[in-house]
């Protein structure tokens, strides 16, 4: 029996995480509509705000995306 021990990601935050994957190394600029989600992802260690003001994935974010979002896409 697997026990879920990760903080829950709201649908909007899962979408923001997926957008970070899609933009790759270019990152997402601060100040967009998904800004609150990007801040939450940063607080969870799944994203970081670079010196140029753009968010990028962390390794933990890549792992979370692979384990949660890609898993959902395969199941659907």
Structural account:
This protein is mostly helical and 76 residues long. 51% of the residues lie in helices and 12% in strands. A three-stranded antiparallel sheet has the order 1-3-2. The chain has one domain (11-75). Helix 1 (11-23) crosses helix 2 (35-43) and helix 1 crosses helix 3 (59-75).
Question: What is the compact description of this entry?
Answer:
The protein has 76 residues and is mainly alpha-helical. The chain is 51% helix and 12% strand.
What key attributes describe this structure?
76 residues; mainly alpha; three-stranded antiparallel beta sheet; 51% helix
Shape: globular
Number of helices: 3
CA(first)-CA(last) distance: 23 Å
Give the strand line-up of the largest sheet: 1-3-2
Q: How many separate domains?
A: 1
As a whole number of angstroms, the C-alpha radius of gyration is 12 Å
- Runs in which pLDDT lies below 50 for 5 or more consecutive residues are none
Residue-averaged pLDDT: 88
Helix content percent band? 40-55%
Biggest sheet overview: 3 strands, antiparallel
**Beta-strand share of residues:** 5-15%
Structural class: mainly alpha
Order of helices and strands: HEHEEH
By DSSP, the count of extended strands is 3
């Amino acid at each position: 029996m697997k026990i879920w021990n990760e903080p829950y990601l709201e649908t909007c935050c899962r979408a923001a995480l997926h957008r970070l994957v899609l933009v790759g190394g270019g990152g997402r600029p601060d100040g967009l509509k998904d800004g609150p989600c990007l801040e939450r992802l940063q607080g969870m260690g799944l994203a970081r705000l670079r010196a140029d003001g753009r968010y990028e994935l962390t390794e933990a974010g890549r792992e979370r995306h692979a384990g949660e979002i890609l898993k959902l896409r395969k199941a659907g």
